[in-house]
Structure formats: C-alpha cells, structure tokens
Amino acid sequence: MKSAVKARGGSALWTCGVLAAHVLLTLATALAAWHKHQVLLAPPLPPTPDGGEGLPLLIANMWLGNIVGWWQAVTVAAVLVLMIWTAGMRDLAERLWPEGQRRRRAWLFFGWIVPGADLFVPKMIVNDLWAASEPAERRRRGHPLLTVWWLFVLAAGTAGDRALTAMKKSDSSSQSGRALERVLLGDGLFLCAALLSVCVVWQLSGRLRGAVWSAPARFGSLVGTGAV
Description:
The longest helix is centred in the N-terminal third of the chain and has 42 residues. Helix content is 78%, strand content 0%. By secondary structure, the protein is mainly alpha-helical. It contains seven helices and no strands.
C-alpha cells in the first residue's frame, strides 16, 4: 500500500507539471495574440510589391500560429495526464468507498470526449473522489472549489473554441482584431482553469492519500498479504 500511495503522489507532481507547462504556453499565446493585435492597430504600412502582407504582420502571424500549435498539443497532453491522474485517484477511492463511485472506469476516458457527457461526467467523477476522501460520517459530494474549477473549465473550452473559429474565419483587419480579443479572453479563462486544476489535483491527491494512510485497520490485512 505504501508504494501505491507514493506512486499516486508522483502522478500528482507530473500532472501539476504538465498543467504548469500549459499555463506558460497560455501566457505565451496571450502575448503573441496581444502583439498581433497591436500590429493590426498600428498605422498601415505601404503595400509590398507583390501585394502581400507587411513584414511585421507576417512575423506576428508566424509567431501566433506556431505558439497556438504548441498550445493545442500541450492542451491535449494535459487532458490525457488528467485522465491518468484520475484513474490513479480512483484506485485509492475504491479502497475507501467503492460503493460511492457512481461511474464505471471507462468513463474516466469517455467522460472527457463524448459530447454531452463531457459537460458533467468528469465533474461527477471528481465529486465522488472528493467524497471518498472524507470521513465516513460526513461524506458529501461536491465542494465550492470543485464547482468553481469546473465552471472555469467549461467556460474556457467554450471561449477557446469560439476564438479559434473566429480566427479561421476572419478575412479583414477588423475581424482579425475582434477574433484576437476573443483569444485574449479565452486565454484568461484557460489560465484560471489551469491554475484551479493544479489546486484540485494537489488538494484531492493529498486528501485521498492521507485518508488511505489514516485507515491502517482497514488495509492492514491487504498489506500483510501483499495485495496492495
């Protein structure tokens, strides 16, 4: 059991590390979007001989496009790492309160990708994990931290999707400017969501590991047989 609990602590560190990388890339995306927005607001430069974009705008587009590509890759990685972390926490929660885990293990993955289910299933799973970390006499699903976290996750996902769609459809400087303002709003929401995710991961990991460590009587026989 000791090695299993320590391994879950290591997974929390890895998860927080990936989320920290997501925070840094989100900041970089916001800076690139702000820079391009400033270029669009600057006085127009004389057209190039071939009628193409001016050099400052080309550079701004290049930086924003590259950083957004890296940001999207790290976002996918962050979701995958969160899935793996949730599976590890589910292992601990099932030792504490197996009957309280309302969703099958497959939903640890499908809950993030199935349309409709992705609006509530991950939050439901985390609610169950949080309740499992509580003493049996005062178990209660849900917590203000979890509610605020999930609202920011949903808001960030919606705003980010709309911002990227607006950027792809913009064909004028004014439309690009409005799309970049949406990108900045989405980046702000993603920053809040990522930072709150770090809080949830760290808090829930500590609570579940502490709950398992403080219940030696229940798991003593398992430790003696090497089952955990």
